[in-house]
Amino acid sequence: MPNGQIRKALSGFYYVYDNGNIIQCRGRGVFRNRGESPLVGDFVDYTVEGENDGTITVLHERKNNLVRPPIANIDQAILVFSIKEPDFNTILLDRFLVVLESFNIEPIICLTKSDLMDEKMKKTMAVYISDYEKIGYEILMTCKDDPAFHEKISPVLKGKTTVLAGQSGVGKSTLLNTILPSLDLKTGVISDALGRGKHTTRHVELIEVCDGLLADTPGFSSFEFDLMEKEELSSCFPDFVERQDGCKYRGCLHVNEPKCAVKQAVELGEIKDYRYKHYLQFYEEIVERKPRY
Q1: Which residue from 48, 78, 185, 203 puts its CA 20 to 30 A from 270's CA?
Q2: Binding residue per annotation — 260?
Q3: Which of 207, 92, 220 is nearest to 164 (CA)?
Q4: What CATH fold (topology level) applies to the domain 71-216?
Q5: Binding residue per annotation — 210?
Q6: Is 115 annotated in some ligand binding site?
């Protein structure tokens, strides 16, 4: 039985990549009966029916999957944040980082519009960049018409399945147009390939680029903590994880507990105060979330 990977899902069909060929497949009814749904990024087994048609018979175990957008087996996410217009926003960045950590997706921070910085902004951003690099996050910087960006981004994409995420207006489209010329596609074709053409249904698709796979995912602009419990939150802050073994109480939530190593690190400036404030805000959000039935 051949196997491959779903690279695109559209109008009830799944387009499975197998050794350079794309096979148009349907999903088996058994998936619907089990409440399962094949996703872009899934590794699958399929049976061949005709020259380029088939039926997906087996879904292999996923290492992760997102609901919005529906995509599986993601290695990393490039979080696109502008420095200005809109202004750099640490609470939104931390929200993205926390949710990606919870799905075991490696985040890479890409800061755009660096050409719009004045001297004061350069100093402010240098501090933030240092803070996040110390935590262990990789940071790329770019601006419009950056001739070196393709060289910066190519090794990051190589051999990985990557999603792009970011608010509208942060320069995501400019970034895509920088990355995708390696496919020799014109802008209009890029729009269609990414489900953005005027008459194209918006869909998720993995595209081969820089020896990796890239998905620009519609609807991937904000995150909620729908699936997270309050006990899991601190494990999504790597700077907290480093210190939590020093807490007096096992399972410390770093909120009201005495002799908390995380709170002590905040007081000493080893964990940034704004990161801890964001943690408390996310914690409250999870606690106040209405239960799902």
Answers
A1: 78
A2: yes
A3: 220
A4: Rossmann fold (3.40.50)
A5: no
A6: yes
Which of the listed CATH numbers 3.40.50.300, 1.20.1440.230, 2.40.50.140, 3.30.980.10 matches domain 3-60? 2.40.50.140
Distances (CA, A) of 240 to 8, 21, 46, 270: 38, 46, 44, 10
Choose which CATH entry (1.10.40.50, 3.10.129.10, 3.20.20.30, 3.40.50.1820) describes domain 230-287. 1.10.40.50
Q: Two tokens at 125? A: 């951003």
Residue 25 is labelled as binding a ligand: no
Contact (CB, 8 A) for 206 and 213: yes
Strand (E) or helix (H) holding 22:
strand 21-27
Whole-model pTM? 0.87
264 annotated to bind ligand: no
112 is in an annotated binding site: yes
Summarize pLDDT for 106-162 with one digit per residue, the tens: 999 999 999 999 999 999 999 999 999 999 999 999 988 888 888 889 999 999 999
